[in-house]
Structures are given as structure tokens and as C-alpha cells.
From TrEMBL:
Entry-linked InterPro entries: Cbl-bd_cap, Cobalamin-bd_sf, DNA-bd_dom_put_sf, MerR-type_HTH_dom, MerR_fam, Meth_synthase_dom
Protein name (record): MerR family transcriptional regulator
HTH merR-type domain segment(s): 3-72
CDD domains in the record: HTH_MlrA-CarA
Coiled coil regions in record: none
PROSITE patterns assigned: HTH_MERR_2
Lineage: Bacteria, Pseudomonadati, Bacteroidota, Cytophagia, Cytophagales
Keyword annotations: DNA-binding, Repressor, Transcription, Transcription regulation
Keyword Transcription regulation: yes
One Pfam family of this chain: B12-binding_2
Native species: Hymenobacter nitidus
PANTHER family: MERR-FAMILY TRANSCRIPTIONAL REGULATOR, REDOX-CYCLING DRUG-SENSING TRANSCRIPTIONAL ACTIVATOR SOXR
Length: 299
């Protein structure tokens, strides 16, 4: 696992490098090794401890007191302090520390507390999404392994599916009809699952087709279901050079519907959108678009 520079710790934890050095020198918070050129290197345990220490400092605890805590006392103090529903930073740091420890009960406890206190949608937008961005950074720096990333992804997936199941049913005749799917070979489902929740929570009817749908199937789906909108998320598929041709194909297959095209592949290049397509750059843009459609429907 990871060997981190002090700049890595700064980027992951949000604590400035000079503060980390001060905590290390004055209070012995971290115990870095040094290379033959005298450069500090930090291990996974250092990162976990720094995240926990940062969480408690954000709560107002004095660093001199925190430095005296054992690892168990430190973890217990972090668990007890993450109760403020609007302190997203502490909640995210607690989730990061729990991920590195593969502490599934603590991950669930923080998520459930945020959902209970903020409401489901705000908990996803303000806690889960920024947390997943941090997880991406940890993955880039090699500081989490696939098992840890899968643990986090599956917990969030379970929360979204459970939240969606609790919503009341909507008849296709009573609202706009949406088709949600991922392109063939695309498996990154969390954004699409949350879109499914958000649409159903707003009284929209969704035909959720999930992962790995061949584009050719959409023509038959549109003919039978007659959706108003077709939405997909492109994270890793199709190949970057094929995104434009894929969009052009969708415009033909789904003629007469509005295409909603979301995901990193849409943001990373200059694309020409057909007249019936909309590209929300952020999830907040997508939610605003849906709310606008609702207002138009109610008018």
C-alpha cells in the first residue's frame, strides 16, 4: 500500500503541509520514514491517523490533547463527534478513515446519520459525492486497494437502491416517461442510480435498464415505451474517439425524444450535440433541469 509524500497528505486530508510538519515535530502525531535523500515518506497508518486528527481538530479539540490519545481512543472520539448534519468535512474525513480501515459498520453509521439528518438527496449530494471524489484521489495515489473501493461503492449503491425502493410508485400515464441506461460495456452505475432516485422522488416514471445495454436495443424500447426522455451516463465507454459517433447514433435511434447525456466522457472533449440533446455538466445541473421540466408540467 501507499508511501505518501507530505504533499500527498495535504491533498488527501486538506491539512496544509506546514501544519502537518508542526504537528509531527511538536506532538509526534506522525512517524514518517526518510529516504536516503532525507525526504519524509508516510504510510497508510500515518494517513489514517492524520484524517482522524483532522476530524477532531475541526470539532475544536486541542491538538495537544488529541496527541495523547491512543489509536482506539482516537477512533472512538471521531465516531462520537460526527453528529453535526451540516459539517460535511468531518463526515467525509470520518468516511475516509473508515474506508482505510475497511470498517463497514462505521461507514454505514456515518452514511445513515447523514441521511437521517439531512434527507436522502442532500446526504448524497453533500456527503457521498464529495467523499467519492476523495476516494478517486486516493485511488490515483495508490493509497486504497480494489477491495476498499468496492466496499465503498457497494455500500453507497445499497443505500441508493434502498432509498429508491421506499418511494411511492408512479404510473407512466401520470408523468413524463424516462429511460435510463448505461452503454454496452459501461459498468459505473452510481450516478445513474442516483438519477433514478431523483426522478422518481420528483414523480417521474422511469424505465431503468441499468448497465451494459447495446445501443441497437433502444429503438425497440422507444417504440414500445414511447419515452419523453432517454438518459445515459458515459464514464469509461465508449472509447473517447467514438463518443461523437455514439451520440449521433442515439439521435437516430431515439428520434422524437430528448437525450440527456451525462458523464466524464461528455465533459472531456468538444462535441457537437444534436438538436434533441441536453448535456448537464454537473449533477446539480441535471437536478435543475428536471425541476424546470416539473415546473413546466405543472404550469
Amino acid at each position: 500500500m501507499g508511501h505518501f509524500s507530505i504533499s500527498d497528505l495535504e491533498n488527501i486530508s486538506g491539512i496544509k503541509a506546514h501544519t502537518i510538519r508542526m504537528w509531527e515535530q511538536r506532538y509526534g502525531i506522525l512517524q514518517p520514514e526518510r529516504t536516503h535523500t532525507n525526504i519524509r515518506t508516510y504510510c497508510d497508518d500515518d494517513l489514517r491517523r492524520l484524517l482522524n486528527v483532522a476530524t477532531l481538530c475541526g470539532q475544536g479539540h486541542r491538538i495537544s490533547k488529541i496527541a495523547q490519545l491512543s489509536e482506539q481512543e482516537l477512533a472512538s472520539a471521531v465516531i462520537s463527534c460526527c453528529q453535526d448534519p451540516h459539517d460535511f468535512g468531518r463526515q467525509i474525513q470520518a468516511l475516509l478513515a473508515a474506508t482505510l480501515e475497511m470498517n463497514e459498520p462505521q461507514l454505514c453509521k456515518v452514511f445513515d446519520g447523514a441521511i437521517r439528518q439531512l434527507g436522502f438527496e442532500d446526504a448524497i449530494m453533500h456527503v457521498a459525492y464529495p467523499f467519492l471524489q476523495r476516494i478517486g484521489l486516493l485511488w490515483q495515489t495508490g493509497s486504497i486497494n480494489p477491495a476498499q473501493e468496492h466496499l465503498v461503492t457497494n455500500i453507497i449503491r445499497q443505500k441508493i437502491v434502498a432509498g429508491t425502493d421506499r418511494l411511492p410508485p408512479v404510473l407512466p400515464s401520470e408523468s413524463r416517461r424516462w429511460v435510463l441506461y448505461l452503454p454496452e460495456g459501461e459498468l459505473h452505475e452510481l450516478a445513474l442510480l442516483f438519477m433514478n432516485y431523483a426522478l422518481r422522488a420528483r414523480g417521474q416514471h422511469v424505465l431503468y435498464l441499468g448497465q451494459n445495454l447495446p445501443a441497437a436495443e433502444l429503438a425497440a424500447v422507444c417504440k414500445v415505451y414511447n419515452p419523453h426522455l432517454v438518459c445515459t451516463v458515459m464514464t469509461a465507454v465508449p472509447e473517447r474517439a467514438q463518443v461523437q459517433s455514439y451520440i449521433d447514433e442515439l439521435a437516430v435511434l431515439c428520434a422524437g425524444t430528448t437525450l440527456v447525456l451525462y458523464g466524464p466522457l461528455m465533459n472531456s472533449q468538444s462535441l457537437t450535440l444534436p438538436a434533441n440533446a441536453y448535456h448537464p455538466k454537473l449533477m446539480t445541473d441535471f437536478l435543475g433541469f428536471v425541476d424546470t421540466l416539473q415546473d413546466e408540467q405543472s404550469a
